[in-house]
Write a structure and sequence with these properties.
14 strands, 2 domains, 9 helices, single chain, 272 residues, four-stranded parallel beta sheet, six-stranded parallel beta sheet, Rossmann fold, alpha/beta
Length: 272
């Protein structure tokens, strides 16, 4: 399948760039709303159209390097009004899983922001006798964190990761993300994580869809990655909207064999 410049791929009922019938949108951030520290052209106007058309919008990110408060501050500084309820992170999914497993003691390879969210949930992040090693997108990573985690894993402590993304998009090209760290720990210890949270797990958005009282078909997942954003939309039976402003290309989509609802260059083309 070769996609043209204005390609719209249809599944089920007809869907177009206007997203007719959609009542809520879940928006990836890196590569979708902004790239690095720069807004995607037309992103603010798209968000204004969401408000004008009465469409609820939520910001969804696998990037666990920042806390919810830090994301709200970053978005607000970019001229995007939001509150903490508007932000859904892989860290939330991770905390839910840790709570379900009754985990309170960990050694975390994680930023200060992520560690604070874990501490607020009653989970230690530098325990000498951890139940789990926790791996997040640590942009403050150092050798002590890595080596101590490796020692714990050699002793049989299992690993859980916040999300599977291999790279974090930036204006200068992809940067190492959790998936790259996982490969390093695999080479070092011989062990894979027992669980990976975040996208593409559909539970990351299904609880919000149910809370809103909507059907999955009334919600759209908008993102730039096939193996997380689009895969989650497909698993959740949501409208899947692939933007080409971040990681994925038309060739990637063609080679993946995935069928998505809509393909656009950026969010600037949506809801017009």
């Amino acid at each position: 399948m070769v996609l043209g410049e204005d390609a719209v791929v249809l599944i089920g009922d007809k869907m177009d760039k206007g997203l007719s019938g959609v009542k809520a949108v879940f928006l990836d951030l890196d590569g979708t709303i902004y790239l690095g520290g720069n807004l995607i052209p037309g992103a603010l106007e798209f968000l204004s159209r969401c408000q004008e058309q009465g469409i609820r919008r939520y910001f969804l990110s696998n990037n666990s390097s920042k806390s919810v408060e830090q994301y709200v501050a970053k978005l607000s500084a970019m001229g995007i009004p939001c509150n903490q309820d508007d932000v859904l992170l892989s860290t939330h999914d991770l905390l839910s899983w840790l709570k379900q497993e009754n985990i309170t003691r960990t050694w975390a390879i994680a930023t200060t922001g992520m560690c604070q969210m874990m501490a607020d949930a009653g989970i230690s992040t530098d325990d000498e006798n951890p139940q789990f090693v926790v791996l997040g997108y640590d942009t403050e990573i150092n050798y002590e964190k890595i080596s101590t985690a490796s020692i714990h894993m050699h002793r049989g402590v299992p690993l859980v990761a916040s999300h599977p993304d291999m790279v974090c998009p930036s204006p200068d090209g992809g940067l190492p993300d959790v998936g790259a760290y996982l490969a390093m720990l695999k080479v070092t210890t011989g062990h894979d994580p027992v669980h990976i949270t975040g996208k593409p797990n559909p539970g990351m958005i299904m609880h919000k869809i149910e809370e809103l009282g909507l059907l999955p078909s009334e919600c759209a997942m908008v993102g730039d990655r096939l193996y997380t954003d689009m895969e989650m939309a497909i698993q959740a039976d949501c409208v899947s909207v692939l933007v080409l402003s971040g990681e994925a290309t038309r060739s990637d989509l063609s080679e993946s064999g995935k069928t998505v609802s809509v393909v656009v260059e950026s969010v600037d083309e949506l809801l017009r």
